[in-house]
Amino acid sequence: MSVITANARDSGVLTWRNLMNVRRQPDLLLGATLQPIMFVLLFAYVFGGSIGDNPDAYREFLMGGIFAQTVAFNSAYTTLGMAADLEKGVIDRFRSLPMSRAAVLLGRTFSDLVVSAIGLVVMSVCGLIVGWRIRGSFIDAVLGFAILLLFSFAMSWIGAWVGMLSGNVQVAQSAGFIWMFPLSFVSSAFVSAASMPGPLKVIADWNPVTAVADAARELFANPRPGILGASRDSWPAQNPVLWAVLSCVIILVIFMPVAVAKYRKVASK
Question: pTM of the predicted model, to two decimals?
Answer without folding.
Answer: 0.88
